Structure formats: structure tokens, C-alpha cells
Amino acid sequence: MLNAINRFRLVSFLEGVSYLILLFIAMPLKYFADSPSAVKMFGMGHGVLFIVFIIFLLESMRKHNWNFFFSTQLFIASLLPFGTFFMDRKLKTYA
After folding, report:
1. What is the C-alpha separation between 72 and 33, in angstroms, rounded?
2. Nearest CA to 70 among 54, 92, 90?
3. 95 pLDDT exceeds 80?
4. Average pLDDT over every residue of 8-31
5. Do the beta carbons of residue 94 and residue 5 sit within 8 Å?
6. For residues 14 and 48, is the Cβ–Cβ distance under 8 A?
7. What is 3-60 written as a DSSP string?
8. What pLDDT shows up at residue 2?
9. Quick one: which of 1, 19, 73, 82 has its CA closest to 91?
């Protein structure tokens, strides 16, 4: 059974991968190959994973008494390409 931080790390990894697929595969397919279906499919998956990411961030924040500044850094990192992978280094110290 995974604890709150490991669940959060897993979801943040999946969310990061879905974001990169959306940015570097689905969006170019939409604009250069006239194939918008990839954005619909990966956009929906990424949206669901992002919502789960936020829920698990709040859960981990509450259970481990993370301060607001650290939690805000984690949230902002999720908005940047490759950000979730860099924040995982910080999260390993808590796991």
C-alpha cells in the first residue's frame, strides 16, 4: 500500500508524462498533421490526472504539514514542462 507521498509522486509522474505527450506529440499533430483527435484524447487524460494531482497534493500537504510556500512550489512546477520530474527530487526526501 502506498503512503500519501508515494501516491502523490506516482500521480505527479503520470501527470508530467501526459503533459509532455500533450505538448510534444498531440499539439504538433493537431497543427501540423491536421489531426485534432490526439489533443482531445490526451487532453482529457491530462485534465483528469491534473485534478487527481491537486487532490493528492492537498492530501500530502495536510498529512505531512507542508508549508504553503513548498506546496505552491510543487503546484507551479506542475505547470511547467518537466517540472514534475524536478520536484520529484525534493519529494524523495519526504518519502
Report:
1. 37
2. 90
3. no
4. 95
5. yes
6. no
7. -HHHHHHHHHHHHHHHHHHIIIIIHHHHHHS--THHHHHHHHHHHHHHHHHHHHHHHH
8. 76
9. 73
- Specify the DSSP element, H or E, that contains 84: helix 83-92
Residue type, position 28, single letter: P
Give the pLDDT score at 90.
84
Q: How many CA atoms lie within 13 A of 31 on its CB side?
A: 6
pTM for this structure? 0.90
Cα–Cα distance, 92 to 37 (Å, whole number):
36
| pLDDT confidence tier of residue 1, bands split at 50, 70 and 90 | low
The answer on pLDDT for 94 being more than 90 is no
